[in-house]
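Revision sheet: structure tokens.
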Amino acid sequence: MADVIRLSGNLLGFYSSSLGSSRPILVAPQPRFCKRVISFSVIWPLSNDFVSPIVFRPPKQLMSFKAQATVTETEQPKWWEKNAGPNMIDIHSTQDFLTALSEAGDRLIIVEFYGTWCASCRALFPKLCRTAEERPDILFLKVNFDKNKPMCKNLNVKVLPYFHFYRGADGLLESFSCSLAKFQKIKDAIELHNTARCSIGPPKGVGDLNLESLSAPKDKLAGSSK
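Predicted:
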């Protein structure tokens, strides 16, 4: 008979067993004592009076790290600040407006008058951008009503969103209000006014806004040099 020492947690127990061979005896720990560090004993019979336990401990649990990604939020442009492409231009003043009309030649121009607070303007705008992407031959001008009230008043803009269609010497072709539900109205106007043609003569004035005033300073400068 040999004494068997069993190590489990902080408890030691002595048992007796008969060792019939020189092979080691594995004594498993009680489950209730196994929490964080699991220990068990491998028993080798060294003598009839003493059995030496060899205690194995599992490797320490790997530390887990939580990586926190810091995302820097960049301020997104507001809906009215987005443009579909180079053929969609923001108008910031009467001078910008007149310059765009005078430099467009025979190109069809669609002017949208909008308000940043206007829900109908916001709902219609994505579809207007898609139309601008599909029709790069047309110039789209965006006029903020609140920042250009005197000009809008001269152009008789009283409801938003509102649209003007211009082309070369023909000047103002058509004007109307439009919502998302009636967007087909804009497409019909494009098909009507964007036909192939050549205008004869300079661009016309726009209401009280006269395009000829843009060339007046150049004429005076040329006259003074003679």
